[in-house]
Amino acid sequence: MLSWSSTTEGRPADLAAIVRGEGDAGLPHGRELVAFAEAVAGYDDTALAAARERLVEVAGEAFMVDAAAVAANFEMMTRVADGTGARFADDPHGHRAALDAQLGIGTLTSAR
Amino acid sequence: MRIAEVARDAYLAAEPSPPWVRPFDDAALDVAYRLARHAGTLTAEFYEQVVNADPPKGLHPLDWVEVVGVVVAVLPPTAFARALGNPLPALPVAVDGPPTGVEAAELAPATLNWVPVAAPADRVASVVQALSALPAEWDNLWQLAEAQYMSDAQMADPLWNRGTLSRAQMELVAGRLSLIRECFF
C-alpha cells in the first residue's frame, strides 16, 4: 500500500523505513512517524511520550491524533489477519513474492 | 467480558507469558492472550490443535472467530488511548442473557483463511471475509476501521486521506507497525 500510494503521489517511498526503521521513507515527517509507530508497538511509555511530543512538535496535534488512529487500526488489523490465518490470493505474476522478499516477511511465523 | 480483560491485560503486560505457554488452561482465554500479545506466533497448526480439541482446551471454530472479534474490539481503543497518553477506556459492563447466536446464513470453508467464513468463500480479500461468519463482529470491525483509518471503498483510492496525514504517511505508520508485529499479511 505504501509503494502504491507514494508512487501515485509522485514520490515513491523508500521501504527501508518499514523494514529497518531507518530514514524518513522520503516523506514529510517520515522519521517522526516511524519513531511514533515503533513507540506505539513498544512497551516503553516514556519512549512513547517522547515520540508523541516530537510528532506534535513537527506536525501538530491533529496530525499526531490521526497517526495514533492509524496505529490503533493496525493493532487491530494485524490481529484480524493473524487470528484468522489470512492469506493472499494467487500471485501468478510474482509481484507479491518480490515485495515479500524486499520486506523480508515471507519467513515470518505468521506466514505458516 | 473476561476474554476482553485478558486481551487488554496481555496487550499491556510488562512481563507477558511467552507465546508457547497457555496461561489459563481455557482455550478462549489462552487464544485471546496469545492473539493480543503474540499474534505473529499464531500458526495454522495451533489453530487446528485448538479447534480439534475438546473443551476446555478446545474451541469450536466459530467460538475462535468470536474470540478474535472480542480481541479486535478491545485492542484499538486501548492502543489509541495509550498512543495519545490518555487514560485507558473502561470495558463495558456485561449484560445478562444468552449470546445472540447469530451467524452467517450459510458458512463455507475458505482457502484464504483458516476460519470458516460466510458463503461464498474467497470472493473478497481474506481480511474482508475474515470475520464474516459472525455478522456482528464483522460490522464492528469495519466500523472501527472506517473511524480509525478508512472504509474499504476509500481504500481503493491511493490518494484518499483525512487532510492530516497523506495516504503514504498513513501507510508508513501501518507498514512499520505491522512489520514490528511480525504480521506476514
Write the layout of secondary structure elements.
The complex is a heterodimer of chains A (112) and B (185).
Chain A (H helix, E strand, L loop, with lengths): L1 H7 L7 H4 L10 H12 L3 H15 L1 H24 L10 H9 L9
Chain B lengths: L1 H11 L14 H12 L5 H8 L9 H24 L22 E2 L8 E2 L7 H4 L5 H14 L3 H4 L11 H14 L5
Antiparallel strand pairs in B: 1-2
Please explain how this structure is put together:
The complex is a heterodimer of chains A (112) and B (185). Chain A is mainly α. Chain A has helices at residues 2-8, 16-19, 30-41, 45-59, 61-84, 95-103. Chain A has one domain. The two termini of chain A are 22 Å apart. Chain B is mainly alpha-helical. Chain B has a domain at 1-89. In chain B, a hairpin with an 8-residue loop joins strand 1 and strand 2. Chain B is globular and about 50 Å long. Chains A and B meet through helix 1, helix 2, helix 3, helix 4 and helix 5 of A and helix 2, helix 3, helix 4, helix 6 and helix 8 of B.
Range of strand content of chain A: under 5%
Distance between the termini of chain B: 28 Å
Mean pLDDT of chain B, nearest integer?
94
> Which parts of chain B are unreliable, with pLDDT below 50 for 5 consecutive residues or more?
none
Q: Count every helix of chain B, treating DSSP H or I runs of 4 or more residues as helices.
A: 8
What string gives the helices and strands of chain A in order? HHHHHH
User: Based on the structure, what is the oligomeric state of the protein chains?
Assistant: heterodimer
Round the Cα radius of gyration of chain B to an integer and report it: 17 Å
Poorly predicted runs of 5 or more residues of chain A: none
Largest sheet of chain B: 2 strands, antiparallel
Major sheet description of chain A: none
Would you kindly provide a brief summary of this structure?
The complex is a heterodimer of chains A (112) and B (185). Chain A has six helices and no strands. With 112 residues, chain A is mostly helical.
